[in-house]
Amino acid sequence: MYSLVFYYFYRYFDNQGDRTPMFSAACGLFLVFGFHIILLYVIFQKVVGHLLLTPLSQDYGTNKLINSFMILPLFVLFLFYFNSKRRAEIVERMNNNSRVFSAINWISFVIVAGMPLIAIIIILRN
To answer: What domain range is 114 assigned to?
Structure first.
């Protein structure tokens, strides 16, 4: 599932002439992974019925800075997991697959990458 999302991001950034399409695809995949984590949190929060986490500060800028320091180590671990060797294996495997751009794979990509964000918005609006 995540290999397909990575490859679609990789092909997009490669076709756009990005100098580092592998890194950009890993960043896009981290964003999708983050949407999945946030969706799980929002669903759990709705089931429990109240806020699970409260802001650490009343200042918006301070909260952004604290959140950045919490997410940055996760991003570094994510990049270590999707190291150059693993990324190259995914690209090579998908390049050899002639049906990677089939309709079912496009639908899978849209569902995996886009639907969590839409679901988050719908759940939080209610």
So the answer is: 2-53+84-125
